[in-house]
Write a structure and sequence with these properties.
The protein is of the alpha+beta class and 302 residues long. The protein is built from five helices and ten strands; from the N terminus they run ααββαββαββββαββ. This is Intradiol ring-cleavage dioxygenases domain-containing protein.
């Protein structure tokens, strides 16, 4: 079930101000209000946040989530060189990017209790159909940081290209946990923010984004980056991937077909794992993909 966005959707609200600024309403009150089908919530700082995934959405997706994966602790991966807080609390992250519509539904669970985690902030970011990242168009196009061909440097030094200047092998992970290694967040080099956004999980631990099917760039298979925050802690940094038969189908059509020469697939990507595959079904003129993230909420390693 898809919910239309109102005119407040997409205004700049950082995830940090969202958590710190709800004031007397509290995150629980914010999420309860967000669960209604109409209206918006205004925080104590005057920021307006639009509704996100609702209980009815959770019911519609229950069967798909059940088939997606289990409560086994989700593997952490590199955050790559193109992460930054985009200051965008929103459901629809497409902006002006053309591509096949994709709904991404994520359920965040506690890996020990196997129950939903409400009030978690989930961020996702990925490249467009041509392999470009907003906020880093020059770097991801190869215009700087290693001279890769158009389509982008592979983040994190994956096979097939030269990592951007200053990026350690493996790409690093978010400071504060959620992955191996360490890397500073990107300082954006342009003012674009397409295909980036964050949502707060509802009582069922669910967030939902509307985006496009991600493109590809040299040295990496098709993927979407994700990060989960509990309070001020980054408890998971991971990636989501797709069955190659679906990638082939999507990439046969515009605008993807204009971007040729793909060199890395799931079977030769150095990050891919079967557990990162999303459960995907057709959804009108696009697709719906779901995945469970099981996080170590108490940070005890289990």
């Amino acid at each position: 079930m898809r919910h239309d966005l109102d005119h407040h959707e997409g205004q700049r609200v950082s995830r940090r101000r969202l958590i710190a600024g709800v004031g007397s309403i509290g995150l629980a009150g914010l999420l309860a209000a967000c669960g209604r089908d109409s209206g918006t919530v205004t925080t104590s700082t005057g920021q307006t946040v639009s509704p996100q995934a609702t209980a009815s959405t959770s019911a519609d997706l229950a069967a798909l989530f059940g088939a997606a994966n289990t409560c086994t602790l989700t593997a952490s991966t590199t955050q790559g060189p193109y992460y930054f807080d985009a200051d965008k609390i929103r459901n629809d992250i497409r902006e002006d990017r053309a591509g096949t519509r994709l709904r991404v539904a994520i359920r965040v669970q506690d890996s020990e209790q196997c129950g939903p985690l409400a009030n978690a902030v989930v961020e996702i970011w990925h490249c467009d159909a041509a392999g470009l990242y907003s906020g880093a168009e020059a770097q991801s196009s190869g215009a700087s940081g290693g001279g890769a061909a158009p389509g982008g440097n592979p983040p994190g030094g994956a096979s097939g290209g030269t990592p951007p200047t200053g990026t350690p092998p493996g790409g690093g992970a978010a400071p504060g946990g959620g992955g191996a290694g360490s890397a500073a967040d990107l300082t954006p080099t342009d003012d674009k923010r397409y295909l980036r956004g964050a949502q707060v999980t509802n009582a069922d631990g669910i967030v939902e984004f509307t985006t496009i099917w991600p493109g590809w760039y040299r040295g990496r298979t098709t993927h979407i980056h994700a990060m989960v925050h509990l309070g001020d802690d980054r408890v998971l940094t991971t990636q989501m991937m797709f069955d190659e038969a679906l990638n082939t189908r999507v990439y046969a059509d515009a605008p993807y077909a204009a971007h040729t020469g793909r060199d890395t697939f799931n079977d030769n990507d150095n990050i891919f794992a079967e557990s990162m595959l999303m459960k995907v079904v057709e959804d009108g003129d696009g697709y719906l993909s779901v995945i469970n993230f099981s996080v170590d909420a108490d940070r005890d390693g289990t």
